[in-house]
Amino acid sequence: MTVxxxxxxxxxxxxxxxxxxxxxxxxxxxxxxVEAAGFDWISVWDHLLPSHVTVPDPAxxxxxxxxxxxxxxxxxxxxxxxxxxxCGNLVYCAGYRxxxxxxxxxxxIDQLSGGRCEAGLGAGWAExxxxxxxxxxxxxxxxxxxxxxxAEALRALLAGGEVSFEGRHVTLRKPGRLPAPVQDRxxxxxxxxxxxxxxxxxxxxxxxxxxxxxxPEVFGSKLAVLHSHCDDLGRDPGEIRVSVxxxxxxxxxDLIHRFGAAAERVRPAVLAGSVAEMAQTLxxxxxxGADQVNVAVRAPWDRDVLERVLDAARSLA
Length: 317
Hints:
The chain has an eight-stranded parallel β-barrel, surrounded by seven helices. A two-stranded antiparallel ribbon has the order 7-8. The chain has helices at 24-37, 51-54, 71-81, 99-113, 127-132, 140-158, 198-205, 216-233, 252-259, 263-266, 275-287, 303-314, and strands at 2-4, 10-17, 41-44, 86-89, 92-93, 117-122, 164-166, 171-173, 188-191, 208-212, 241-248, 270-271, 292-297. It starts with a strand and ends with a helix. The protein has a single domain (2-314), classed as TIM Barrel (Alpha-Beta Barrel). The protein is an alpha/beta fold.
């Protein structure tokens, strides 16, 4: 559902779905429910391993299904099983796929969705995934350089025509015309909160910026940094939609159950308590400049608590 947020944009509520410990049948059925319930956005993550491997935590609930589903194919399935919501990914790791392959996938998903695809990029951080799949894990500086080159090249590829690009990490030698997206400008999101590099990359190349599990005050301070980079680059910050991923919990026990040892760290960025308390937290994010709040969930899906989130958002109207 959308809530009017002023002259610049509408305040939207989304659901960000993890792809671990679930079946494709359950996931598709859940996405249908999310759209029917009234959310505006559904996105998937890009992980190669389940979170109990990438971030070991014995307090996590026991997995009902092993493994983690693949992101591009899940993104395409999301496009096909829905008809209204924006279909995003937060975010594709720049180190997992060559940019020309990712661009071809995003253009295809945009056609499958009828023009509802949103592409996301991040530098990557889960070293255990890189190691498990035999992907080199460079230092943070090189990963951010790769992110910047990938963002620039992806934007050019999605704009159409043959593209040549010569960077330190990305090389394109006119790969040929890719399938054309339905949208004139397929939105590109940059994910991450690094103030010196990541936010500058977002200011230079992104249509959207997303950060995960930061409280409203931190979100507001990082947004100010993003705007400062926009000023330096001559970019109108109003061109960049900004969002935050938050957790949700039915109560204290559920918070510990879902986040384990990370509960204290994420607590300031979790919607919890009564509908009024959830609305208060959503209002704080909106007051700090968020255009969109995405509720990050993993199986088993708790629909009751998501309905309370929607009630909280409606109360802001």
